[in-house]
Write a structure and sequence with these properties.
Blueprint (H helix, E strand, L loop, with lengths): L9 H14 L11 E6 L2 E6 L8 H9 L7 E6 L11 H7 L4 E6 L9 H8 L3 E4 L3 H7 L1 H9 L3 E9 L3 E3 L11 H12 L3 E5 H7 L22 E5 L12 E3 L3 H10 L4 E6 L1 H9 L5 E7 L9 E2 L15 E9 L2 E8 L3
Parallel strand pairs: 3-4, 4-5, 6-11, 6-12, 8-9, 8-11, 9-10
Antiparallel strand pairs: 1-2, 1-3, 7-13, 12-15, 14-15
């Protein structure tokens, strides 16, 4: 359905494409979540990437626009593909629709595309502009971009703790430190991830399921959640609730390389303290999500976020950048990334 917005600017139209990209975040992996908007003389028509095997965002938006696409301006969050995959090249559909101009937020880092789509459009006489809303799209597609550039997953480390940085009581009981709202948000984070990883110690102590149970998107957006793969570092008891799970061992860089080769774009590391410490100290975490509850253990005998020795002096202190803060019920979600150099 077309939306009549004659006064919309280029950033406004890319924002519509961004909204479409966010809407398909849960269904496109291992393909990127892309949105598109086609600005015609009769209104704006949008589309998002379908699940694997289905049409890409540009094709869906052009299908919605129909014959009105001729002479229109197309906005897409990611460079259109120019190669044959599960579906045909999007650039051929754009050219056939007689689009006059294409605005692309960012170039596709996939070696199969990487500028070829833009080159093909320009060769066909279509004007191409780039860069509008590039920071926002780069942030949204961070897991895809890293995976295509390095072959490695985007690693998100999730921790839930009290204000004094403790994740479990001295007797190792740890359930329900945070609120229902925070736990629901953490399950959404699982839904956005291709795989969830814990150490064998956490399996033995907590017997987690690692499934998405406490959060569900609206049925018209995602009729059914695809459960993330469950990864255990080490061996899990045969009767553990985490099964079916993949048991892995060896150096963490090799574990990540293997998962990346299997199409895992985003890996959610849920701990416990030893596993979290290994990923943190190895510098393998791309994004930290820390849920802080308004609670205090009030001593040094409760379980800390990270096991083992930390920085021995202030010069070695790890520092990051706070990306965002969000209140969830009575809890605080902190999003951090390693400090930019």
């Amino acid at each position: 359905m077309g939306l009549s917005h004659p006064e919309l600017t280029d950033p406004d139209l890319m924002d519509l494409a961004l909204s479409e990209a966010r809407s398909c975040r849960l269904v496109t992996s291992p393909n990127p979540w892309v949105g598109c908007a086609v600005h015609t003389s009769q209104g704006v028509f949008t589309g998002a990437t379908s699940p694997p095997g289905g049409s890409h965002a540009e094709v869906n938006a052009l299908h919605a626009a129909g014959s009105l696409a001729e002479g229109a301006h197309l906005y897409t969050t990611l460079e259109p593909c120019a190669h044959q995959g599960r579906t045909g090249p999007c650039v051929e559909v754009i050219i056939a629709a007689k689009i006059a101009k294409v605005t692309v937020a960012i170039e596709d880092p996939d070696p199969a595309v990487s500028g070829r789509g833009i080159t093909a459009l320009r060769a066909a006489g279509i004007g191409v502009a780039t860069g509008i809303r590039a920071p926002e799209v780069t942030e949204l597609l961070a897991p895809y971009i890293k995976h295509r550039r390095t072959g490695l997953p985007w690693v998100v480390l999730k921790l839930a703790a009290t204000l004094d940085g403790r994740i479990a009581a001295p007797d190792f009981s740890s359930q329900w430190i945070t609120s229902v709202e925070a736990r629901r948000d953490a399950h959404k984070l699982r839904a956005q991830s291709d795989a969830v990883l814990v150490g064998a110690g956490t399996v033995a102590t907590d017997d987690p399921e690692l499934t998405v149970r406490h959060w569900q998107p609206s049925a018209d957006v995602v009729p059914r959640i695809t459960q993330p793969r469950r990864i255990v570092l080490g061996k899990a008891p045969r009767d553990a609730r985490v099964h079916p799970a993949t048991e892995m061992s060896g150096p963490l860089p090799e574990v990540l390389q293997e998962l990346g080769s299997q199409g895992v774009m985003q890996l959610l590391v849920e701990g416990g303290a030893s596993t979290a410490a290994m990923f943190h100290r190895a510098g393998l975490v791309d994004h930290y999500v820390i849920y802080l509850a308004p609670a205090l253990f009030g001593g040094d005998d409760a379980r800390a976020m990270f096991s083992g020795a930390g920085a021995s002096n202030i010069a070695d202190l790890w520092r990051g950048d706070i990306i965002s803060t969000t209140m969830l019920g009575g809890d605080l979600r902190l999003d951090l990334c390693p400090a930019s150099v």
